[in-house]
Amino acid sequence: MEIQFIYSAKHTIHDPVYEIYDGQKEPYAEKAERIKSIESSLKANGFKSFYTPKVFPLKYILAVHQKEYVSFLRARVLKILPEDILFSSYYIMDTYTPLVSRTYEAALTSVNVALTGAECILNGKKLIYSLCRPPGHHAEHNRMGGYCYFNNAAIAANYLSKKGKVAILDIDFHHGNGTQNIFYQRADVLYISLHANPHDRFPYNSGFAKEKGSGDGRGYNINFPLSLGTTDRQYLKILRKALAEIDNFNPKYLVVSAGFDTYEYDPIGGFKLTIPCFSMIGEEIRKIDLPTLVIQEGGYNVEKLGKIAVSFVRGLTGS
Ligand SMILES: [Zn+2]
C-alpha cells in the first residue's frame, strides 16, 4: 500500500536544552534528532514521498484547546529571550515541558503537519504519516505537559470528525491523558489506548481502566493499562482486542498516535517490545482496512528510532 509522509524541518526551532526530572536538570529527551533519525531512515529505506505542510488557520486549534490557553502560549514565548527557558505555571502540568522562545511557532507547525495529513485523508488518500514534533497526546484542553503543547492527534481527529466517526488508537508507552481529556464526553470519537499502568509511570493520574468516558461519551474511552515488562506476545494480544473494539465502533477514519517508547531499550519506557514487533503492530493496523492517519508521538532511543519507524511502516504498508 502507498504511504506519504508530512514533514517540516522547522521542528528544530523548539530546542530546550534541559528538563527537570526528580529535582535534577537532565538533558532534554524530546530532542530534534528523534524526528531527523526517523526521516533519514525512512528515506534510506526507499520511502521517498515526503511533503511539507500547508498552513491552517488557528480555528482548528481553538476547536480543541481553550482560547486563554492558546493566547498564553502565544504571548508568553514573546517575552522569553533566546537563551532562556521557562518552567511551570498554571498552564503547565509538569517540569518536562519548558517553553523556549520559538516553542509556539514549532507547536503550530506540528499541528499543520497533522492537519495536512488529515486533509490528504479527506481527499481520498488511504495512508498518511505525519511526522509531528513536538508531540501532542499529553496536551489537554487547557494544559501542556509531557513534552506536548498542542494536541496534534486530537486536532486532526476533530477535523476529520466533521466528515464521519473517528477512532483514535494510541500506542505510545504513556497514556494520552490529553486526547482522553479532549474527547471524554463525545460519542463520535472513540479513544482507545494501550499504555503503561499509570500507577507506575507518567501521567500517573489518568489512564486507568475505570475511565470509560462520561455523558454522551460514556463507553467511548477505553484504556488498557499494561504492566512494566510487557512482551511482544502480550502486547499484540491486547492490540488485537483494541482493534476489535475499533471494528465494532465502525468508524470512517482511524488516527494512530504512534509512540515508539514501547521499545525494549527506550530510555524512558519500560516495555520489552522488539523492533520486529513494530512491523506486526503495523500489520494488525493495516488489517482493519480504514483510511489511516499516523501521528508521531514519543520514542526516545534516538539511535534506534529510525529502525523502529521503518519496521512499523513496512507492516503498515505490507512491504
Ligand atoms: Zn510516551
Attribute tags:
eight-stranded parallel β-sheet; 319 residues; binds zinc ion; two-stranded antiparallel sheet
Report on this structure:
This protein is globular. Helix 7 runs parallel beside helix 8. With 319 residues, it is α/β, with parallel strands linked by helices. The chain contains 9 helices and 10 strands. The longest helix has 20 residues, at 103-122. Strand 2 (18-21) and strand 3 form a beta hairpin. An 8-stranded parallel β-sheet has the order 4-1-5-10-9-6-7-8, sandwiched between helices. The chain has a two-stranded antiparallel ribbon with strand order 2-3. It has a single domain (4-317), classed as Histone deacetylase domain (Arginase, Chain A). The model has no long low-confidence stretch (mean pLDDT 95). The structure holds zinc ion.
CATH homology superfamily name: Histone deacetylase domain
What is the CATH level 1 assignment? Alpha Beta
SSE arrangement, N to C: EEEHEHHHEHEHEEHEHEH
Roughly how many Å is the radius of gyration? 18 Å
Report strand %. 5-15%
What's the domain count?
1
Q: Write out the strand line-up for the largest beta sheet, numbering strands in chain order.
A: 4-1-5-10-9-6-7-8
Task: Identify the quaternary structure here.
Answer: single chain
Looking at the structure, the CATH topology is Arginase, Chain A
Strand-pairing-aware structural class: alpha/beta
Helix content: 25-40%
**Basic shape:** globular
Tally of DSSP helical segments: 9
Regions with pLDDT < 50 over 5+ consecutive residues? Answer: none
The CATH architecture comes to 3-Layer(aba) Sandwich
The strand count comes to 10
What is the averaged pLDDT score?
95
Q: How far from one another are the termini?
A: 8 Å
Outline the biggest β-sheet: 8 strands, parallel
Ions, cofactors, ligands: which are bound? zinc ion
